[in-house]
Known about the structure:
The structure holds 2 protein chains of 2 kinds.
Chain A: H1 2-19, E1 27-32, E2 37-49, E3 53-57, E4 67-68, E5 82-83, E6 85-86, E7 93-100, E8 105-110, E9 115-116, E10 122-123, E11 128-132, E12 150-152, E13 159-169, E14 191-195
Antiparallel strand pairs in A: 3-7, 4-6, 5-13, 7-13, 8-12, 8-14, 9-10, 11-13
Chain B: H1 2-12, H2 16-25, E1 31-33, E2 41-46, E3 50-52, E4 61-63, E5 65-66, E6 69-74, E7 86-87, E8 89-90, E9 111-118, E10 128-135, E11 138-140, E12 146-148, E13 152-157, E14 170-171, E15 176-184, E16 187-197, E17 206-218
Antiparallel strand pairs in B: 1-16, 2-9, 3-4, 6-8, 7-16, 9-16, 10-15, 10-17, 11-12, 13-14, 13-16
Amino acid sequence: MSKSLFKSLGHVALAAVLAAPIGANAESSFQTGAGALSTSARVDFQITIPRFLSLRVGTAGAPVDLVSFDVPAANVGNATPVAGTGGDLGAGSVTASVLGNGGNVTLQATTGGPIGNGSAGAINWSQITTASSNPSLPAPVLANGASAGVAVAAASGVVNQTATWSYSYANTDVIESGTYGGVNTNNSRVTYTASLP
Amino acid sequence: MQGRMQKTKAAAGIAAGVILLACALSAQAYTINLSPRSPRTIYLQVGVGAFTGGTYNQGGSPAVNGTINVVSVTVPAAQVGNGTAQAMTTNSTASISLLDNYAFCNLPGQLYVGGFYRSTSSSAGSATATLVASVPANLTNAGGQTLPFSQVRWTSSGNGDSGAQPFPAGAFPAGGTVTIGTIRRNQWAESCHAYSYLNSSVPAAGTYTGRVTYTLSAP
């Protein structure tokens, strides 16, 4: 009797294995019949795009550009703006670009304070003006310290703007002669920051 | 193909004679002729399907499996929109064919697409069944922003295959339908699709989703 019961259970177990669906976790379907047949299976697609933000001011990559202004002696303080030289585009102009996909971008410029000459002389950053070729990518107004932020509007969540920023020296004050700023000295450097909310 | 036929013969047991004949009649990768019998049936599987009672060659019957697979990709932040296509992967676990348990697709890069159209005779019913995909215009994210479905395409292959696939490489339209392939009467056909995202634009950040419906029809 024991042997008979064992054999019966064995058959039941085998039948259960054969009856179990072979696959799982996806979609299959079927239809039978003599007429028109139609059956469907679905697939979901998912593409994840991470948030990112990139900013370029001047030469792409690591180099930091130098923009210089040379004021003729006869024009010192006469309020005639002086165009710059240098920059990746020359003539005191640089490439500015912002690319991001997280909505509106805020741009800010930060300096260490008035540009010095190594002694008591100083030029306020408000004397350095920036003109942008693209109204959709305005340049922050330079200041001693942190500038006010400027907004770069996104379209469908994306900001993709490029401009030429051209620097000038406003030349409205008569100041002590000398060389102000330099290569990362005497508060000569402006750091631009782009940010997403 | 040769390797698969050998495998099929070994697995088919008492049906080996029938399988040998079927292999000899198959022409391309991967389609195989089926013996007509009742009931007239179409079976479609995209991802992992279901059979009861063993594989088709073991005398099993097709079954419904309602879980929907996902084909996905996360684009690296440094590569968003740079035009370098991004390979997509699937959460499907379907590497084997339910025709004969052959290891046909490679996971997670390939999605099984296959099925059969069997009639009651060699002449009853339409000559072919057609597989069509219905595609929304866009994938959308939670913010309502969109990515056109035309940014998704696929290649087609299968382990041991040579020659043209029954469901060849293609691309989704930005809305509408696209014919994926056909299955001849009394035939099993299958391919493995490897999808990629073209990555040719910079979209807003987010997770974009969309559903494609594959429909196999025999008039």
